[in-house]
Design a protein that fits this description.
65% of the residues lie in helices and 4% in strands. It is mainly alpha-helical. It has two domains: 10-202 and 216-406, Growth Hormone, Chain: A (Up-down Bundle), CATH 1.20.1250.20; 413-479 and 489-590, Winged helix-like DNA-binding domain superfamily/Winged helix DNA-binding domain (Arc Repressor Mutant, subunit A). The radius of gyration is 27 Å and the shape is globular.
Length: 595
């Protein structure tokens, strides 16, 4: 790509040597993506002169492009979520990213074509192209956010949602037709410039970095436990998004719009960061608990806003909508990075179900208008239903422990726990510790064997990026007459010592960089990471810590700031219940298993 995006990072902290979050270009890029959704999809009538297919309450409407686009968008996301590992090579390819941005831009610009007898076909084609393109872009945005730590996800999401409504307001008021439509049409290309930078290189170009596979998860249980509240939240979000974007914001004058949007954006970021400061960085329940009642209250204020001259009420409504938009994106990002689940799976299933619910929320009020026409409080009834759905969704929201129960336990966990429980004297010296572990394994009824597959030792160009060195766990029955090792110095010196043990003993790391040995050490780190539910970036940091490298080296290799590196290290020590790097090396060494 010929476009270079400058690396600008803003760190926020409270002076405890840990980053409160990194504000980077992800906030701008995702803000542009959300602005494109608000303009091209939800307000095509104003920006492109499209005709409303269905009209609902409070001047809300649905166009044919919106209907086709969101159907295709939801179908693509659900398909990607269900086939995340099967077609992973496509879902992480930068070429696919470029194609998605281009067809999304082409589909949007198709709406600028003058009305003719083929206008209906053009709208359908535009909806089809924008649906596919926006689904591809969203998968890449979800993957990019999932690579951030929890605080950075919150910070960048809050700023991004604020940027989205600011760009929407600017395009609505300051750009005349057709320049507003042209600007909206090239927004996906601007997203591409930022996403291209934040999409990592394929695994075969990242030789020095370990690649850890996502934690396995029971898909059926996860979809049921995760999908039901997401679908319910989507109905409430669809109602709030349409009323806020299509009615409240456009109905105000320009100066009032700017005041409301700037105030609401600032309030949204302040609320989210306050929750993080109170210790809610890694628990999404801490976000939902105070925000859901506030958002539900703003839903009940919608009839008051309709009466006019209610600037403060409009401010509360827009703030509630922005918090709701940010809350759901944070929820998906937190689940993906906290439990190291595949972001393609989480965002594909989550945002796909959310899109279906938003479409239902857009069509249902219009369908119920005639049915509720004879009642004196038809709008209030629909809003009460939306609030009830929101409360139900919060009641169904899974807790962290429930997600942990759905995640399939690592098959090597027992080996780690067995070695951790060994007497402390066995951990004092490397040879005696290795011999003790080997003797205990031989005397047992089974041995955990890490067998590297042939694909891992010789990676092929078309291999998925989820794992450069896959491990297979084999249970091997050990006969009673198997000879045990003798405690001779010669045999102890001949025993292979891993990089973690060499670093712990202050020895020089071996020069053997074969794929087999690197895969073996990576498998040890992955065993510990799966056992203690390390988040997405933490296994990479632990990998270098276990090799004996310091924080500065980790910053250079992983391209992270000093505060972020220290935050990851602190979280790793806390989760693994260790206090020094030597203890961490010993823990990784305890995951050693015979071949």
């Amino acid at each position: 790509m010929g476009v270079r995006v400058p690396r600008i990072t803003i760190n926020a902290d409270f002076g405890d040597d840990s980053a409160f979050g990194e504000l980077n270009a992800l906030s701008i890029g995702y803000g542009l993506h959300q602005a494109w959704v608000l303009t091209a999809i939800f307000n095509a009538t104003k920006f492109y002169g499209s005709h409303a297919m269905i009209e609902g309450l409070y001047n809300t409407h649905v166009t044919l492009t919106f209907f086709v686009s969101i159907l295709v968008y939801a179908a693509c996301l659900l398909f990607a979520g269900l086939t995340d590992q099967k077609f992973l090579r496509l879902y992480v390819s930068k070429r696919v990213l470029a194609v998605g941005a281009i067809i999304c831009s082409i589909g949007t610009l198709c709406l600028l074509l003058p009305p003719s007898s083929s206008s209906l076909a053009i709208e359908i084609i535009a909806g089809f192209l924008t649906g596919i393109g926006s689904a591809i872009l969203l998968i890449f945005w979800g993957t990019a956010f999932a690579r951030c730590d929890a605080s950075s996800i919150v910070l960048n999401t809050g700023v991004a949602i604020t940027i989205s409504v600011a760009v929407y307001c600017a395009a609505l008021n300051f750009l005349p037709f057709p320049f507003a439509g042209i600007f909206v049409g090239i927004v996906p290309l601007l997203e591409l410039a930022i996403l291209y930078k934040y999409t990592p290189d394929p695994y075969n170009k990242r030789n020095e970095l370990p690649i850890f596979k996502p934690l396995p998860v029971n898909h059926a249980k996860f979809i049921i436990r995760f999908g039901l509240p997401v679908f319910a939240f989507g109905i409430a979000l669809g109602v709030m998004r349409q009323i806020s974007v299509q009615y409240i914001i456009p109905s105000s004058d320009t100066s009032m719009q700017l005041a409301i949007l700037l105030g609401a954006g600032f309030a949204t970021v302040l609320v989210l960061l306050t929750i993080v400061a109170l210790g809610g960085a890694n628990k999404w329940n801490v976000y939902f608990r105070p925000l859901i009642p506030f958002i539900a209250l703003t839903v009940l204020l919608i009839p008051v806003s309709v009466s006019g001259n209610t600037t403060f009420v409009d401010f509360l409504l827009v703030t509630g909508y922005l918090c709701f938009e940010a809350l759901l994106w944070i929820f998906f990002g937190e689940i993906s990075q906290r439990f190291r689940l595949s972001p393609v799976f989480v965002f594909g299933i989550g945002r796909g179900l959310l899109a279906v619910a938003i479409l239902a929320a857009s069509l249902l009020p219009a369908a119920l208008v005639n049915w509720l026409n004879g009642t004196p409080f038809r709008e209030e009834i629909l809003l009460m239903v939306a609030m009830a759905v929101m409360v139900l969704a919060y009641a169904l929201l899974p807790r962290e422990r429930e997600i942990e129960a759905i995640v399939i336990p690592c098959p090597l966990v027992r080996q780690v726990y067995n070695n951790i429980d060994q007497p402390a004297q066995n951990a004092q010296s490397a040879p005696s510790f290795i011999q003790t572990s080997a003797t205990q394994n031989v005397e047992g009824t089974s041995v955990v064997v890490a067998a590297l597959t042939s694909e891992a030792s010789q990676p092929q160009p078309d291999q998925p990026a989820s794992g450069a060195a896959d491990t297979a766990v084999v249970s091997v029955a050990t006969p009673n007459n198997t000879p045990t090792q003798t405690d001779t110095p010669q045999q102890s010196s001949d025993a292979p010592i891993s990089d973690a043990r060499r670093a712990m003993l202050g020895q020089q790391l071996s020069d053997d960089t074969s794929e087999q040995k690197r895969g073996r050490f990576r498998a040890k780190c992955e065993t510990v990471a799966n056992t203690y539910f390390l988040s997405r970036r933490e296994p990479e940091v632990m990998f270098f810590l276990a090799k004996g490298h310091n924080s500065s080296y980790i910053q250079e290799k992983l391209f992270i700031s000093e505060g972020t590196a220290k935050t990851h290290i602190r979280h790793i020590y806390r989760k693994l219940d260790v206090h020094t790097q030597q203890e961490l090396m010993r823990l990784v060494e305890s995951a050693d298993f015979e071949e």
